[in-house]
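tool_call: predict_structure(chain=1)
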Amino acid sequence: MTFADLGRQPPSNALLTDLDQSETIYPLHAYVCGKCWLVQLPELVPPNEIFNERYAYFSSNSKGFLTQCEDYAKRMALMLSFSERSHVVEIASNDGYLLQYFKNMGIDVLGIEPSANVARVAADKGILTHIAFFGVKVAKRHKQADLIIANNVFAHVPDIHDFTEGLRILLRKDGVITIEFPWLLNLINDQQFDTIYHEHFSYFWLHAAVAILAAHDLKIIRVEKLPNLGGSLRLFVTHYSNKRERDDSVAEILREEIAFGYDKGLLYVDFARRLADRKSELLEFFVQARNARKTVGGYGAPAKATVLLNYCGIGSEFLPYVVDTTPFKQGKYIPGVGVPIFPENHLFANMPDYVLLFPWNLRTEIEGRIGDKVRMWGGKFVTAIPSLEIF
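tool_result:
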């Protein structure tokens, strides 16, 4: 059954270096299984075409996110009574954004990261990083861990069972895994269709995660709700043989999913139908702004921007530029639509009437940092998800 058909699009982080560059496009069409209700994309884009030297996402760019990471590291070190003999492994460790805080506590760390360019940044911080796609073969090459961190990677793997079995092999007998992923309930409830892109193969309910982990003798003992990425779940996972008991949080969220109707086909049909409403809202905004001779600048060039602009068919004729604080992205173009990416100062120099925020999940952080400047010239912010809002 169709969940979201967003047309044919290039890989969302495959930024262009020039406008004459050839692009490969693929269907961006998510489906839902009518038995387990897992939402997935077909494996059309080879993983090494996404996670390579051109990978444009660096986790350290959000200062607010780094504060959360430091708090997490301190909490886990205390919860698991870590010592200098403890060992922490992060899967998809990116630029060392999280492991640096464990390392600063004197804890032995290892990162496993497929994108060589961001892995080198982690290595420059002194964080040992294995450049590889994680699975059973990689797990067998490393010593077992007291804590395995799998933040926002569970959704990125095409072979979820090979990945999960790798987690089981790598985890010590009494160790803990924490897994984070955007919660499908929030994606549907807030129409977060711009978080559907080729590097995200799966979109999870807790029900689906329970079944996948159980197939590999792993159990969920606790679940926490997080505000990250529009609303995520953090699972605490152990071996079935571990004596740690499951707390009430697991049953509570399972009940919440049942009440939401996760296993009702109409929920998915309705989501697919409402996509056109978001598209028409944003197109109408741009047409009205153009007719009123108002200027629009974009803020942020995350994968969300690629998906939203390509789905809505918005190019540089409506949006002449976006700005981004990541040096790696500056001077490039958003794939598919060719909108140029400039440093943040370009926004302040042009003083547009409207600033369209693509990383809506960082809305509070961005508004707090540049809001006063935007207000000084009479500008307003705009978000398109979950519905068009001008503020």
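agent: The chain has two domains: 39-260, 278-390. Proceeding to next step.
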